[in-house]
């Protein structure tokens, strides 16, 4: 179970259009190092995850994956960025999103999806993050 410290934090977040499609935005400022949201979903074994496939699978340990494909999991709308304002921490099997810096109200939330995902999924189509689009 997620620590009480984070369980009751409910951020004012909204899903709306972003530069990369749909994205998750904050309607309030978030302090540096602040808990943002938990990435939630069904728990799958490695075998189940391999059979299911998809873009919303998140590995939490060698044989444990979270399937975040449900639209109830609004954390799934956090897009990749090469210059992210959030980062992921896995705490007791829970995927927690924290702010890397102070985030202003109205900003899109984003984190680095990591090299493997980037190279396999994002790079072939071209990165659509704000940092790469401005180049």
Automatic annotation (TrEMBL):
**Gene3D superfamilies, per database record:** SET domain
Localization recorded for this chain is: Chromosome
Chief location bin: cytoplasm
- Keyword line: Chromosome, Methyltransferase, S-adenosyl-L-methionine, Transferase
A Gene Ontology MF term for this entry?
methyltransferase activity
TM regions (residue ranges): none
- What PROSITE patterns does UniProt report for this protein, alphabetically? SET
Q: Which GO terms describe its biological process?
A: methylation
Identify the InterPro entries for this entry.
SET2_Histone-Lys_MeTrsfase, SET_dom, SET_dom_sf
State the protein's name. Answer: SET domain-containing protein
